[in-house]
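Q: How would the C-alpha cells look for this protein?
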Amino acid sequence: MSDTTKTAETTTPATPPQGTHQYLLTLQVPMGSGFSVGTWSGTWTPRQGSTRHDVYLALRNDITRKYPQYRDASVVFFDVQPNQL
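A: Here is the predicted structure in C-alpha cell form.
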C-alpha cells in the first residue's frame, strides 16, 4: 500500500511592517480665492532619541519637498502617537 500525502501551498502577499508611531498632519494654504487643505497620515519609526518636534520637522520637510505649494502653509493639526493599543 502506498502512503502519499498531498499538501497544498498557498502564499499571501506579506503585509509591510508598520512603523512604531502613527502620525497625522493637516496643512492649509491660501489658494486662489479660497484654501487648499491637505492631510497626511501613516506610520513611521523615528530614529532613537527623536523628539515630537523632530518628527514634525521631518514630516513637514518631506511633504513640502513633494508638494511645494504647502511650503508656507499653516498647521491645522499635528499628532504623533505610539502605534500600539
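The chain has a mean pLDDT of 90.

Residues 52-66 form the longest helix (15 residues).

Upvote if useful.
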